[in-house]
TrEMBL record:
Residues 17-170 form the ORC1/DEAH AAA+ ATPase domain. This is AAA family ATPase. It comes from the Bacteria. Gene3D superfamilies: P-loop containing nucleotide triphosphate hydrolases. Pfam families: AAA_22. SUPFAM superfamilies: P-loop containing nucleoside triphosphate hydrolases (SSF52540). The lineage of its organism: Bacteria, Pseudomonadati, Pseudomonadota, Betaproteobacteria, Burkholderiales. It comes from Derxia gummosa DSM 723. Residues 363-382 are annotated as: Disordered. GO terms for molecular function: ATP hydrolysis activity.
């Protein structure tokens, strides 16, 4: 909190806080249930937008509309009064004029002016929280919105006073890095921070609930719960669902429930890995080697450079043209669910970051590629 407000000697959060955490590990719950209320309690106007709330709509539009709704909430009474008086425009804090007929619409009012107007109308600092911010990079309007937000930050914040706080989260650190990692990135120089997963405090809370409702299970083995939670990938939704199942009177379990919970975690992990293996083996050979290269290279992936084309040829035993690679990438993007993500600048990445962890684990274990014939790939139509 202090860092966001520019009151901490260390860190750069007042220039933008970038948080990365895997999907379903409680990131959005933290942003909406913990961070946003804490900011509001500290006298900050909070605007929250989830860019995955509707992936069919342009992320730039979603950002603009979230800011517009917050602005309209503050100016609604002023606007109605102005209209009754026959005025066409109202002034915010005696400065910026806003067309009362366009309040709630960003067309004609850029994001910088809209955020400045919101801060002046609210009479307090503004915090814009963008969940799944990496999705903004998938459209030109989204990229433009990010650049505008950087400009708004630079114009609205002054030494010793932060009027605009930017918090951006992502479920894939590699994708989020594209907002900060090179000189052309809108927030070049900022750092990505890993959002810590739920820890022993969460496990203690769950164990306490079980002990309160089931005295016959006192004491609950907290270490066993922690191990199961880790095996579930620190995903509370899956963990709690499994807890409910093994504690149900209909489960058929007798005695201690912890071993059954640990087994459920191992089963879930095996199921996740089996699904990824099935997805991979269901691809055409050219698609497989493209995905293999992407998993191996991460943010360094370049689909058509000489090294990549050599890699494809070595694995397939035949050359792959740029056109064939393009066709394979597009096929990977069009799958349901998509296996590959593409930015507006033509950068590619694996859609689900969990595949990177699966790939790394198999490679470390010497079981990559996941093919009974150890990577012997046959020609395809690509």
């Amino acid at each position: 909190m202090l860092a966001l407000q520019g009151r901490s000697l260390l860190g750069d959060a007042h220039n933008g806080l970038f948080l990365a955490a895997p999907r379903r590990t409680g990131k959005s719950t933290f942003l909406q249930g913990d961070l946003a209320p804490a900011l509001q309690q500290a006298g900050v106007e909070v605007v929250y937008v989830d860019l995955w709330a509707d992936t069919r709509r342009d992320p730039g539009t979603l950002i603009a509309e979230a800011i517009a709704r917050a602005l309209e909430a503050h100016l609604g009474l002023v606007a109605r009064t102005a209209r009754k008086a026959g005025l066409k425009a109202v002034k915010v804090a005696g400065a910026l004029e806003i067309d009362t007929g366009k309040i709630g619409q960003i067309d004609g009012l850029n994001l910088v002016d809209a955020l400045r107007s919101l801060q002046q109308a609210a009479g307090k600092p503004v915090a814009l929280i963008i969940d799944e911010a990496q999705h903004a990079l998938t459209s030109e309007a989204g990229e433009a919105a990010m650049t505008a937000l950087k400009s708004a930050r630079d114009q609205m914040n002054q030494p010793g006073r932060v009027n605009l706080m930017l918090v951006m989260s992502g479920s894939d650190r590699d994708k989020l890095l594209r907002l900060v990692v090179n000189a052309g990135a809108p927030f070049y120089g900022s750092q990505i921070q890993a959002l810590p997963p739920l820890d022993t405090g969460f496990i203690a809370h769950v164990a306490g609930l079980v002990e309160a409702q089931r005295p016959d299970l006192v004491p609950v083995d907290r270490a066993a719960l922690q191990e199961a939670f880790a095996a579930f990938g620190h995903r509370p939704q899956f963990f709690m669902a499994a807890m409910g199942a093994v504690l149900s009177p209909l489960s058929g379990h007798s005695g201690r429930f912890e071993p059954a919970l640990q087994q459920a975690a191992r089963d879930q992990q095996a199921q996740d890995e089996a699904q990824m293996e099935s997805d991979y083996l269901g691809l055409k050979p050219t698609e497989q080697v493209l995905l293999w290269r992407m998993l191996d290279q991460g943010p360094r992936f370049r689909p058509y450079d000489a090294e990549a084309l050599r890699f494809y040829r070595d694995k397939l035993g035949r050359p792959v043209s740029v056109q064939q690679a393009q066709k394979a990438l597009e096929s990977l993007r069009q799958r349901t669910p998509a296996l590959v993500w593409k930015s507006a600048r033509g950068e590619y990445a694996v859609e689900d970051a969990a595949m990177h962890r699966w790939f790394q684990a198999r490679r470390d274990a010497g079981t990559w590629p996941p093919d009974p014939q150890q990577g012997r790939l046959l020609p395809d139509d690509a």
